[in-house]
Amino acid sequence: GSGAFTCGAQDAGVPVIGVIEGCFSAAATYRDNHPEHPVTVLDLQHIDEVVAFVLRVLRHYEATTGRQPRLVILASPPCQSYSLAGRQLGDADTRALVLPAIVAAGLRCGMAAIVVENVEPFMHSLTWHGTCRDLHDNGFTTDAAVVDTADLSLPQRRRRMIGIGYAGSLACGMRPAELALRASDPVTVADMFPDVTYFFYNG
What we know:
The chain is an alpha/beta fold. It has helices at 4-11, 24-33, 47-65, 98-108, 126-137, 175-182, 189-192; strands at 19-21, 39-41, 72-75, 113-119, 140-148, 159-167. The strands form 2 sheets. It has a 4-stranded mixed β-sheet with strand order 3-4-6-5. A two-stranded parallel ribbon has the order 1-2. Helix 3 packs across helix 4 (98-108). The longest helix is centred in the N-terminal third of the chain and has 19 residues, at 47-65. The chain is globular.
């Protein structure tokens, strides 16, 4: 997509060393926004191909930096299954299988953590709960929260579920961060553009 996850990772000091997109149009948008990162288009449900690509990227990173990487996957699987855009077909939609495939590939590649973004209803889906179960079975801890982008300095009400999974026992939780964000004052368009007057015409 637009590569917002990439921006967040870089702001947090996490190097982005590989990008996989499942859609050619989305990959083109990503290239426009982040030309410094090569992006590969793959069917994310073809787990063997994804694993081969990720392992190749990890080996290249280690060979060029001399550092052994810890794999953190930033996953934004299709949201249409759980939104009005996809007629809310939910877990019956084949696109709901993308996240379990990503997790399966990540486990085979020795991932240390995964961060998942999706629409709010996804947090209550069988897909997310099944994904958590798979992660728990492999020694991961999981958590999730709903975040409004208006609480993150963006002038838009856009509630999104953020889920995390990391190898090992509980080290941090999402709830304190969620409560801290809710306590902040939301940002409005007027805050972002104080010298601009907006006129709305519905003709």
